[in-house]
């Protein structure tokens, strides 16, 4: 049976923590769909959904069983539409737990056939988040090693553009 996993998120932008989860998931499942949330409140994101998709594609092009696209609406509906029944989420610190717990139970309530699997982050990336990276980059701090090298310039340029 072809096992497809969906790894959803905002990915604004993708970090090395996300990439690590993608790589590890791609070793377990036949196909991993990285699903970028198309948020109606566009102001809340640095990059558009299309730009976020393209950044992820840029840094995952060497992984054969990855697909990247954006989605709108309920995640469980999207997962079903993609013929999957598995949601992947990364877990960092205990502080992630409450949010993830709530989301998982709500998704299960919406569709009990869909399971959420949690991947523990690599210790090196346990403090990373897209928000912290944007903040550091905004004030000119170094982000090498925190996001894939190939997108460092994209982040600084986008921040400059949006100022
Ligand atoms: O990277 P994030 O921002 O923590 O990802 C959150 C995401 C995209 C997984 C979540 O916001 C989501 O699934 N949104 C779609 C709407 C939905 O299905 N909501 C019900 C579950 S609470």
Automatic annotation (TrEMBL):
Keywords from the UniProt entry: ATP-binding, Coenzyme A biosynthesis, Cytoplasm, Magnesium, Nucleotide-binding, Nucleotidyltransferase, Transferase
Q: Give the protein's function.
A: Reversibly transfers an adenylyl group from ATP to 4'-phosphopantetheine, yielding dephospho-CoA (dPCoA) and pyrophosphate.
Pathway field of the UniProt record reads: Cofactor biosynthesis; coenzyme A biosynthesis; CoA from (R)-pantothenate: step 4/5
GO CC terms in record: cytoplasm
Q: Which GO terms describe its biological process?
A: coenzyme A biosynthetic process
Does the record bear Nucleotide-binding in its keywords?
yes
Q: Where in the cell is it found?
A: Cytoplasm
Tell me which residues make up the Cytidyltransferase-like domain: 6-135
**What's the catalysed reaction?**
(R)-4'-phosphopantetheine + ATP + H(+) = 3'-dephospho-CoA + diphosphate
Residues of the site described as Transition state stabilizer: 18
Binding positions for substrate per the UniProt entry:
10, 42, 75, 89
What does the record give under GO molecular function? ATP binding; pantetheine-phosphate adenylyltransferase activity
Is ATP-binding found in the keyword set? yes
The EC number on file is 2.7.7.3
| Source organism per UniProt | Clostridium cylindrosporum DSM 605
**UniProt-listed InterPro entries:** Cyt_trans-like (IPR004821), PPAT (IPR001980), Rossmann-like_a/b/a_fold (IPR014729)
Cofactor(s) required for function per UniProt: Mg(2+)
What SUPFAM superfamilies does the annotation carry? Answer: Nucleotidylyl transferase
What gene name is listed for this protein?
Answer: coaD
Write down a Pfam family by its short name: CTP_transf_like
Indicate the quaternary assembly.
Homohexamer.
What family name appears in the similarity comment? Belongs to the bacterial CoaD family.
Q: What is the protein's given name?
A: Phosphopantetheine adenylyltransferase
Tell me the residue numbers annotated for binding ATP. Answer: 10-11, 18, 90-92, 100, 125-131
HAMAP family, from UniProt? PPAT_bact
């Amino acid at each position: 049976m072809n096992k497809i996993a969906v790894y959803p998120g905002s990915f604004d932008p993708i970090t090395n923590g996300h990439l690590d989860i993608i790589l590890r998931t791609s070793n377990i499942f036949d196909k991993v769909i990285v699903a970028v949330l198309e948020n109606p409140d566009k102001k809340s994101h640095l990059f558009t959904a299309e730009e976020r998709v393209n950044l992820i594609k840029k840094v995952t092009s060497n992984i054969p069983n990855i697909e990247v696209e954006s989605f709108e609406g309920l995640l469980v509906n999207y997962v079903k539409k993609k013929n999957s029944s598995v949601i992947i989420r990364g877990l960092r610190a205990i502080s992630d737990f409450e949010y993830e717990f709530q989301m998982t139970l709500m998704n299960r309530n919406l569709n009990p056939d869909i399971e959420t699997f949690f991947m523990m982050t690599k210790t090196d990336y346990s403090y990373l988040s897209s928000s912290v990276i944007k903040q550091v980059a905004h004030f000119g701090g170094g982000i090498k090693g925190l996001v894939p090298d190939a997108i460092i310039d994209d982040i600084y340029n986008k921040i400059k553009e949006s100022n």
